[in-house]
Amino acid sequence: MITVYNPADGSVVGEAPQMDAAAVRAAVDRTCAAFPVWSRQLARDRSALLRRWFDLVSADRRAFAEIMVKENGKCLSEALGEIDYGLGFIEWYAEEAKRVYGDTIPSHAAGASVLVTKEPVGPTAAITPWNFPFMMICRKIATALAAGCTMIIKPSEETPLTAYKLLDYARQAGIPEGVFEMVTGDPKEIGEIFISDRRIRKISFTGSTAVGKLLASASGATLTRMTLELGGNAPFIVFDDADFDEAVAGAVAAKLRNSGQVCISPNRFYVQDAIYDRFVAAIAEKVWGIEVGDGMREDFVVGPMINQAGVDKVAALVADACDHGARVLTGGKLDALGGLFYEPTVLADMDERAKAAQTEIFGPVLPVYRFTTEEEVISRANNTDYGLVAYAYTRDLGRAFRLSRELEAGMVILNSGSVGTASVPFGGVKESGYGREGSHYGIEEYVDVKYVLMAGLDRRH
Ligand code: NAD
What's the pLDDT tens digit per position in 220-259? Predict the structure, then answer.
């Protein structure tokens, strides 16, 4: 078995199966065997099962949230928020299942008709990370099932308890074996089994760019379709015409969510000259007032980081930034609680030669850079291999349009620090991956477009 630990105090929370290759292959077989039946079910019936699952989980959201706090460390209010976010995908795709429309195209030949249908791609697989143990699974499985695909999921071995609870509720709702399977064990071995099996027609992966690249290369052998939701290095740009208080609140909320362990977490704050000093002072004051602690409290706290490697990475990046001249305005060290708790940190006067400028920090650190002109900041914001999300605050409409066009990101968020919901397409460009999740675009990842020509229709027999 895999032992699951609470990052807040190191206590054992539970365990999950350490499956060997034979058990994983058996689950893949079930996923493939279930496809012909599931894909032919009426969309309305698939929709009803998703809806029943949504209702069962909704009725027990607190129990899910508590497990998530224990295995992930995020605070209760955030865990409840994640559950609503994740359930939103089940609800959205329960509805969308009934609307996977095709097309007709005016025929190019006499006595013929051209139809375009959307067929589920086949049995699919997914691999998910630990930072959103609930939502990531909902987002993938709900889309796959709505499209008529079956899916096998490998959740993160750091947070498998939320995942298995979701599976349990799916079974209670009537979602059968094979349609939704789950495996845990050796990630590399499971990834290889998924990708080398030609019956698995699509893999959806959310995680680091390093692992995404491994999977993308391996997919060349089988041409398995991929959706890759990978790392980020989000710029957060504040112009001097911005609503100052909104920008401060947006910056701190976006950054400290999940202790900064979020792919869309702002990683580089660019603040324009005229408001720079006032802005860094304001975020330092706000961050200083935020408590660190065990997530079981009802109010917002910054929880522990997921593991020691995460803490070490953040500490090294902060030390390196200081070596490059950054000033620590608040935080900058392990919290007095010890263990995996790191103090929320504001670093001013960042130099782009610091490693933090090109590294996904994945911790509660706000590094602030100064800029002067719009052209300059767009160029600096785009100077990264990543392209998941870019945030900017400005009240100039023309500038807002220019930013939306010129920032190299799958998502541009203007005058808000909040990104996701089920009805919008989530995903990145460059090394943040490809493919989209959420909205009607998300379902396109799980269907093949089929062109059907029906000729000879004008001959009566
Ligand atoms: P990770 O890449 O280490 O792990 C992600 C998943 O991949 C886990 O389930 C892990 O067990 C599995 N895995 C690890 N090695 C594997 C291998 N060789 N073959 C197959 N599977 C393997 O990432 P993580 O540390 O769990 O998550 C953090 C990363 O995920 C960050 O880079 C973050 O930005 C990214 N992320 C991206 C999004 C997004 O939507 N773009 C969302 C959340 C997290």
Answer: 999 999 999 999 999 999 999 999 999 999 999 999 999 9
Ligand 1 centre distance from Cα of residue 129 (Å): 5
| Known active-site residue 138 | no
pTM: 0.97
CA of 390 to the centre of ligand 1 (A): 21
User: Ligand 1 — pocket residues by CB below 6 A?
Assistant: 127-131, 154, 156-157, 187-188, 191, 206-208, 211, 214, 229-232, 263, 360, 388, 428
Q: Which of 82, 263, 360, 431 is catalytic?
A: 263
pLDDT at res. 461: 80
* Cα–Cα dist 37/60, whole Å: 30
Most informative mutation of 72, 203, 230, 411 for ligand 1 (most atoms within 8 A of CB): 230
Q: Considering the candidates 229, 374, 431, 437, report the single residue annotated as catalytic.
A: 229
Residue 190: name the closest of 2, 30, 33, 23 by CA: 23
- The answer to whether 231 touches 386, Cβ cutoff 8 Å, is yes
Q: Which residues have C-beta within 8 Å of that of residue 255, sequence separation ≥ 6?
A: 236, 265, 266, 364, 365, 366
Shortest-distance atom of ligand 1 to CA 156: 9
Residue from 227, 263, 358 whose mutation best tests the ligand 1 pocket (most atoms within 8 A of CB): 263
Q: How far is the CA of 113 from the centre of ligand 1 (A)?
A: 46
Nearest CA to ligand 1 atom 19: 188
Q: Which residues pair with 271 in a beta bridge?
A: 238, 370
Long-range contacts of 76-84 (CB under 8 A, 24+ apart): 76/295, 76/296, 76/297, 76/298, 77/298, 77/299, 77/300, 78/257, 78/258, 78/295, 78/300, 79/134, 79/295, 82/132, 82/134, 82/135, 83/57, 83/134, 83/135
Q: pLDDT (tens digit, 9 = 90+) per residue, 306-363?
A: 999 999 999 999 999 999 999 999 999 999 999 999 999 999 999 999 999 999 999 9
Tokens read off for 92: 């959205």
Nearest ligand 1 atom to the CA of 191 is 20
Question: What is the per-residue pLDDT for 219?
Answer: 96
Rounded to whole angstroms, the Cα distance separating 204 from 212 reads 10
Task: Give the pLDDT score at 297.
Answer: 82
pLDDT at residue number 460: 87
Considering only CA atoms, which of 258, 286, 282 is closest in space to residue 362?
258
Task: Using DSSP, state whether 127 is helix, strand or coil.
Answer: strand
Weakly modelled stretches of the chain, pLDDT under 50 = none
